[in-house]
Design a protein that fits this description.
The chain is of the alpha+beta class and 658 residues long. It has four domains: 102 residues, Killer Toxin P4, Chain A; 103 residues, Gnk2 domain, C-X8-C-X2-C motif (Killer Toxin P4, Chain A, 2-Layer Sandwich), CATH 3.30.430.20; 101 residues, Phosphorylase Kinase, domain 1; 237 residues, Orthogonal Bundle (Transferase(Phosphotransferase), domain 1), CATH 1.10.510. Helix content is 38%, strand content 16%. The strands form seven sheets. Strands 1-4-5-3-2 form a five-stranded antiparallel β-sheet. A five-stranded antiparallel β-sheet has the order 6-9-10-8-7, covered by helices on one side. A hairpin with a 5-residue loop joins strand 12 and strand 13. The longest helix is centred in the middle third of the chain and has 41 residues. The chain starts with 5 loop residues before the first helix and ends with a strand.
Length: 658
C-alpha cells in the first residue's frame, strides 16, 4: 500500500533535511574562527609561570564543562605578569553532552592553533573559548568581528528587512533578564517559508552590554551578508545566526512572534506549534515505515530462514551448535507465558521463568511484536552465544521459531543481574569486597575470552551492570549479545559504523562521537563498570551525589590528590583490602583514558588484576563522560527494572550523526 509515490518522496526528503540539519549542528571538531591574535601576531616569549597558569586554566575550564556548566569564567595567577583570564560559553540550545565534547576539543587544540600567544579566541559551532593576560570579564568586545555565510542568496522580496526586524525582537527577548542572555526561534515569511534565528551574548556581560554587542553585530550584516540565505556574524562577546533551516536544538521554550502581521493570540500560536510538532513526529514515523518497507526485501532471506517449518532445516539455517526447542515445550514450562511466570521486560520483550521436562530452570526471552530489536539482533544473539563457551558468559540453551514466535532460552540466573544488587541499598550489603573483586575478575576474563580466545572474535559493545548476570554462587556471566560484532586479527584499530548503539555513560568517546569501535571500546565500558562496583553508584546517577561531579572526573581528582579510597562504597569498610582497591581504581582509570591507544587490552587487565608486583603505567586524564542529558530519554537503554531475578535488559540504538 505504501509505494514510493510523490508524497512518500516528499516525506523522505523532509526526513533527510532534518538529518542534514542535525548533522550540520553537530560538527564541532573544526573551529569556525581562530582569533586575529593567532594570525596577526608573531609568537611571543611566554614566561614559564604564564605557560603553567595557562595550562591550569584550560584544565579547569574543561573540568567545569564536565559538571554540566554551559559557561565559566576562571582566573589563574596572582600577579600582573602571570595572571590568565579564561572564559568559555556554549550555545544556549546545547545539551551538556555536546558542550563537554566541544570544550574538550577546544582546550586540546587551542595551544596548537595559537602557539605562544598571550591571548586567543576560538569559535566553534557549539562553543567559544577565550583567554587573555588582561581581564576582559564584563567588557563588551565587539571587535574583531567575523562572519560565515552561505553562497545561496535570498529569494523572497523584502526578506532582509523582515529578518532584521525579527532579529531585533530576539535581541529584546535575550536582554529582558539575566537568565540566558540569548534567544532563538522561527518566523514565517509567508507562503510556508520559515526562517530561523539565534542571538547570544557571553555570560560575563550585563543586559546593557549584551544589547550593545548584538546591535553592533546587526549593523555589520549589510557589510557581509545582507542578501545571503544563511549567515553568522560573531565577535568575542556575542553572536547572531540566521538561516532557512532549524540549525539549533529544539526545546520546550516558545520563540517570540516576529513584529509583523503574523502575530496572533497565544492560544492560536500554541495550537499551531502543537500541531506542527505532532505532524513532524507523524511524518518521521511514516517515513520510517516507508524506509522499513523498502529495506524489508533485503531481510527476506533471513526471515525465510527463521520461519522454516521443518525444525531440522530451521536449526541448520541458524546454527548447527544450537538445538531448537518445540514451542509446546516452552509454553508448558512457562504456563503459557502467564503473568505468574513473568520475570520482567526489556527492549527485546518480556522474559519468563520456566522449567523444562528434565527439571532444568530456564529464562525465556520472547521477542515482542513492538520490540525495538528485531530479526537481525535475534539471529545475532543466537549465532554468537551458541558458539561461545566460557564460565563467565551466559549460556544459551536453545531457541524456538514457530507460529510467529521468536524465543531464546537461557540458563536461569537465580541472583538476577549485577545492577539488581549493586545499586540497591539493601542488596549491596551482600557484596563484600572479596565478592566484588571476584565479579571484577570474572567480567575481565569473560571479555578477554571474547576478544582473543573465542571461536568468533567478538566486541560486545554494550557492557554494563545490567548485562552481567549472577549465578547461584554469584559468579558473573556476561549476557546480551544483540549488539555484538565480530572482527579479524588484533583489532586495536577502530571499525567505523554509521549506527551508534549502546548505553550512554558506558560508550567510549570515539564510539559515541565518531562511530569508531574496537576492543578498546569494551575496555572503556569495563573501566566504567569497575568504578561503579567500587563506589556502589550508577554512573548516570553519580552527579546527583554530594560530590557534584561525574564519576570519572571525581575519581580522577581523588587520584591526583592521593585520596582514592574516598571513592569506595562505605559498606566495604569492614571487608576491603586497601592495596587491592587502589589497584582496581588504577586499572579503572587506565581503561577510561580518552585516547583508545592508551587503554590496556582485556588480557593485560586480567594479568594486572592477578599480579601484586606488576608496575602499572600512570593514567592520563579520563575522557569526558558520555552520559545522558536533558535531550536523551530518562534511560537511554530500554531495560526495565526487575523485581525478580534473571532479567536481562536489552539496549536500543540511537542514530548519531558524525
Amino acid at each position: 500500500m505504501l509505494g514510493l509515490s510523490k508524497p512518500d518522496f516528499l516525506i523522505i526528503s523532509f526526513i533527510v533535511i532534518l538529518i542534514i540539519s542535525f548533522i550540520r549542528t553537530s560538527q564541532s571538531q573544526a573551529p569556525n574562527y581562530v582569533g586575529d591574535d593567532c594570525h596577526n601576531k608573531t609568537p611571543q616569549a611566554l614566561t614559564s609561570s604564564y605557560k603553567a597558569n595557562l595550562n591550569q586554566l584550560l584544565s579547569r575550564l574543561s573540568a567545569d564543562s564536565t559538571t554540566g556548566k554551559r559557561y565559566s569564567n576562571t582566573t589563574v595567577g596572582n600577579t600582573a605578569d602571570d595572571a590568565v583570564y579564561g572564559h568559555y560559553d556554549c550555545r544556549i540550545d546545547l545539551a551538556g553532552y555536546f558542550c563537554q565534547f566541544c570544550l574538550s576539543t577546544a582546550t586540546r587544540e587551542v595551544l596548537q592553533r595559537c602557539p605562544n600567544q598571550l591571548s586567543a579566541v576560538l569559535w566553534y559551532d557549539f562553543c567559544i573559548l577565550r583567554y587573555s593576560n588582561k581581564n576582559f570579564f564584563g567588557n563588551v568586545t565587539a571587535s574583531p568581528w567575523w562572519n560565515v555565510s552561505d553562497a545561496k542568496m535570498m529569494s523572497v522580496s523584502g526578506e532582509g528587512k523582515k529578518a532584521e526586524s525579527y532579529l531585533r525582537s530576539l535581541i529584546e527577548k535575550a536582554t529582558e533578564g539575566m537568565k540566558e542572555l540569548g534567544a532563538k526561534g522561527e518566523f514565517d515569511l509567508g507562503g510556508g517559508r520559515k526562517r530561523y534565528g539565534l542571538v547570544q551574548c557571553s555570560k560575563d556581560l550585563d543586559t546593557e552590554g549584551c544589547r550593545q554587542c548584538l546591535e553592533a553585530m546587526v549593523d555589520k550584516v549589510p557589510q557581509c551578508c545582507e542578501q545571503k540565505q544563511g549567515w553568522q556574524v560573531s565577535s568575542p562577546s556575542c553572536m547572531i545566526k540566521y538561516n532557512d533551516y532549524m540549525f539549533y536544538q529544539s526545546s520546550s521554550s516558545l520563540s517570540p512572534n516576529p513584529p509583523s502581521e503574523n502575530n496572533g493570540v497565544s492560544k492560536s500560536k500554541a495550537l499551531i506549534i502543537s500541531i506542527t510538532v505532532f505532524m513532524g513526529v507523524a511524518l518521521l514515523c511514516v517515513g520510517f515505515f516507508i524506509w522499513r518497507r523498502k529495506t524489508r526485501k533485503e531481510e527476506m532471506p533471513l526471515e525465510s530462514n527463521l520461519m522454516i517449518n521443518d525444525p531440522s532445516q530451521r536449526e541448520a539455517s541458524l546454527n548447527t551448535d544450537l538445538p531448537t526447542i518445540p514451542l509446546i515445550v516452552i509454553q508448558q514450562s512457562t504456563h503459557h507465558f502467564s503473568e505468574v511466570s513473568k520475570l520482567g521486560e526489556g527492549g527485546f520483550g518480556p522474559v519468563y521463568k520456566g522449567t523444562l521436562p528434565d527439571g532444568r530452570e530456564i529464562a525465556v526471552k520472547r521477542l515482542s511484536q513492538t520490540s525495538g530489536q528485531g530479526t537481525k539482533e535475534f539471529k545475532n544473539e543466537v549465532i554468537f552465544i551458541a558458539k561461545l563457551q566460557h564460565r563467565n558468559l551466559v549460556r544459551l540453551l536453545g531457541c524456538c521459531i514457530e507460529q510467529n514466535e521468536k524465543l531464546l532460552v537461557y540458563e536461569y540466573m537465580p541472583n538476577s543481574s549485577l545492577d539488581f544488587h549493586l545499586f540497591s541499598e539493601e542488596n549491596r550489603k551482600k557484596l563484600n569486597w572479596e565478592r566484588r573483586l571476584h565479579i571484577i575478575n570474572g567480567i575481565a576474563k569473560g571479555l578477554s575470552y571474547l576478544h582473543e580466545d573465542s571461536r568468533l572474535r567478538i566486541i560486545h559493545r554494550d557492557l554494563k551492570a545490567s548485562n552481567v548476570l549472577l549465578d547461584h554462587e554469584m559468579n558473573p556471566k556476561i549476557s546480551d549479545f544483540g549488539l555484538a560484532r565480530t572482527f579479524e586479527g588484533a583489532q586495536n584499530q577502530g571499525i567505523n559504523t554509521g549506527r551508534v548503539m549502546g548505553t550512554y555513560g558506558y560508550m567510549a568517546p570515539e564510539y559515541a562521537m565518531q562511530g569508531l569501535f574496537s576492543v578498546k571500546s569494551d575496555a572503556y565500558s569495563f573501566g566504567v563498570v569497575l568504578l561503579e562496583i567500587i563506589c556502589g553508584k550508577r554512573i548516570r546517577d553519580f552527579h546527583l551525589c554530594e560530590c557534584g561531579q561525574s564519576l570519572l572526573i571525581y575519581t580522577w581528582n581523588l587520584w591526583c590528590e592521593g585520596k582514592c579510597l574516598k571513592l569506595m562504597d562505605p559498606m566495604l569498610e569492614d571487608s576491603y583490602i586497601g592495596s587491592e582497591v587502589l589497584k582496581c581504581i588504577h586499572i579503572g582509570l587506565l581503561c577510561v583514558q580518552e585516547d583508545a591507544k592508551d587503554r590496556p587490552t582485556m588480557s593485560t587487565i586480567v594479568v594486572m588484576l592477578a599480579s601484586d608486583t606488576m608496575s602499572f603505567p600512570k593514567p592520563n586524564r579520563p575522557a569526558f563522560s558520555v552520559e545522558r542529558t536533558a535531550n536523551i530519554p530518562e534511560d537511554s537503554s530500554t531495560s526495565k527494572d526487575s523485581k525478580v531475578p534473571s532479567v536481562n535488559g536489552v539496549t536500543v540504538s540511537y542514530i548519531i550523526p558524525r
